[in-house]
Amino acid sequence: MAEETLAGSVPTVRNRPAPEPTGIDVDPVLDELMREGPVTRIRLPGGEGWAWLVTRYEDVRAVADDPRFGREAVTDRQETRPAPHVVPSRGAVAFRDPPGHTRLRSSVAPAFTAKGVERIRDKARALLDELVDDLLRAGPPADLTAAVLGPFPIAVICELMGVPGADRQDMHTWTRQILSCAQGEQDGERAKDEMYGYFADLIGVRLDSAAEDVASLLGGAVGRGEVSLEEAVGLAVLLQIGGEAVTHHSGRMLYLLMTRPDLLERLRAEPEIRPRAVDELLRYVPHRNAVGLPRIALEDVEIGGVRIRAGDPVHVSYPAANRDPDVFPDPRTVDFDRAPDAHVAFGSGPHHCPGGLLARLESQLLVDALLERIPGMRLAVPPDEVPFRSGAVVRGPETLPVMW
Question: How high is the pLDDT of residue 23?
């Protein structure tokens, strides 16, 4: 991609990522880019060349919703990407455009509707109560990540996926290796192959199942010839990995609350505001430490006053959009009275995260259970001594030491 194809002044190419942010801070390079302009240019650690980065709320949604920006074209390119081993895979659901992408997502849509998520509410609450019972029996101090925040989302997503309880630890191990850049390419690829093999077997034995879990829905779709087994397995892996991201986001959310006693006490005193507070925390806490997957402009498009040429790669930043002052007044303040809170923590457009309702349910159950059953919960170490995972796309506390 030659710079002479661009119209007007060309922004300086900035290298990302920066050194890892501290705690729940926003990536400092992203912070600078948000101030520099609505559309800038970046170079990531892997791949070749540079890409446009869009940071303003309306522009981010415009790109994500616009069919003139496609994902499939990325698989033919060597574009700059978050890590050298992150290589777009042809046919993967994350790199499909409608209508193929829509067809795949439709096969599992019933599991992620309000009705589908509500189906597992009681089971999820019971699983969480068991974990909190164990935590209380063991007594303080405790690692909240190991005792609750890790096993709870694993159990819930496995329940929704139809993965038996005996296999949950394998799922957790594979997901952690896939998501952690620090594990290295070979470990991540090996874990991905093992998870693919697992879901191929699980879906393959559920071709005639009438159950409502994701594996059964995919098995039925394969049996009817609506999707291929390869497509079904790829989608299952993506959903399983995404479901465990709640571990890391809830860890950051609770870390924030325990470093802000005023917020914590208000949630204890006003339980009716908790659903709204969870949405505000989803907006405020950066949910990832990198830009997402790129899109390719399929024709010339103007975004934020910048002419993006056909063939140019474009990234959007949802964490940046969630701090756009034109949409969220005083965006660097946690405001539980913010309404409406139309954040894009789960993305926008056809590739938005299908698990938004599930993540909200899990977060609300966690806040309710921990605030009501452990009213004196607080950090057991100074905030700057809480270790956060490094070298990972989705960051969260490695351990979250608590007292009560």
Answer: 79
Domain of residue 209: give its range: 3-403
List of residues 6+ apart from 159 with CB closer than 8 A: 120, 123, 124, 127, 213
DSSP line for 149-179: ITHHHHHHHHHHHT--GGGHHHHHHHHHHHH
Structure tokens at 198: 């697992």
* Helix 229-243 with 168-179: angle, nearest 10 deg: 80
* Cα–Cα distance list, 52 to 32, 45, 182 (Å): 15, 15, 26
**Per-residue H/E/C for 361-403:** HHHHHHHHHHHHHCCCCEECCCHHHCCECCCECCCCECCCEEE
* 3-state percent breakdown (helix, strand, coil) of the chain, nearest 5: 50, 10, 40
pLDDT at 47 over 80: yes
Q: Which helix (H) or strand (E) holds 14?
A: strand 13-15
Taking residue 225's Cβ as centre, other Cβ atoms within 10 Å add up to 7
- Based on C-alpha coordinates, what's the Rg of the chain? 21
For the stretch 188-222, pLDDT in tens is 889 999 999 999 999 999 999 989 999 999 999 99
Measured between alpha carbons, how far is 400 from 277 in angstroms, rounded to an integer? 21
Pairing of strands 51-54, 313-316: parallel
**CATH code at position 310:** 1.10.630.10
> Nearest to residue 120, comparing CAs of 152, 160, 150, 151?
160
Q: What percent of the chain has pLDDT over 90?
A: 72
d(CA 142, CA 126): 21
Beta bridge partners of 135: none
Write down the mean pLDDT value for the chain: 90
Name which of 317, 297, 316 is nearest 5 in CA terms: 297
Could you tell me where the beta strands, DSSP code E, fall in 226-350?
295-297, 301-303, 306-308, 313-316
Token pair recorded at residue 61: 């949604």
Rounded to an integer, what distance in angstroms lies between the CA atom of residue 401 and that of residue 143? 5
Q: Provide the number of structural domains found in the chain.
A: 1
Please check whether residue 342 is in contact with residue 327, taking contact to mean a CB–CB distance below 8 angstroms.
yes
